[in-house]
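note to self — DONT lose this again. spent like an hour looking for the file last time. sequence + predicted structure for the chain T wanted, 210 res
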Amino acid sequence: MNIKKINPWLVMVLLGLAATACSTDPQVSVSAEPQPAQMMPEAAPTQEESHDAVMDEESTGLPDWYNWELTDVNSGTAFRLNDEQGKVVLVETMAVWCSNCLKQQQEVSQLLQTLGPREDFVSLAINIDPNEDIATLQNYTQQHGFDWRYVVAPEELINEISSLYGVQYLNPPSTPMLIIDRQGQAHLLPFGIKSAAELQSALEPYLNEG
């Protein structure tokens, strides 16, 4: 009598234990999870790799035209602005026919006399009129006694200047000028003719960085 009562209970208990064991089977649990290798993050960059990445970012942050070869019509010397890193560069876009440009360059001439010879400073005038050539620009500089760097901009440089600094930099009568600091960053100056004293004041913070 007792055995007949106990057996059904034992059967139910055994069936419950078997069901519990199946639900906690580790093989079933692992198969439902993603593979551990897929969840691992990429290795952190080393200090040297991080330094190289920063240097790459800094180098690519400078305009392409800094590395283009330009030719000074006064000396015939080819140069790149990247070769002038560590110097302060005063840049003006101009045209021979522009009377405001002439007045502005007369102020630049006075500025250069005030500053005197400096190895850490460059003045650069860029002729952006596609109808004016090297001979025209040479005649202009010789006529007025302007002996600093003058270049005739190729078409790609004209496009680059417009893209980087705005179309107003292709309008010579507004006497566009900018300062490139020792790190290669450009700082736009106000439009309009700027006196030698105003140019000197704008340049001093960057010249004094040296």
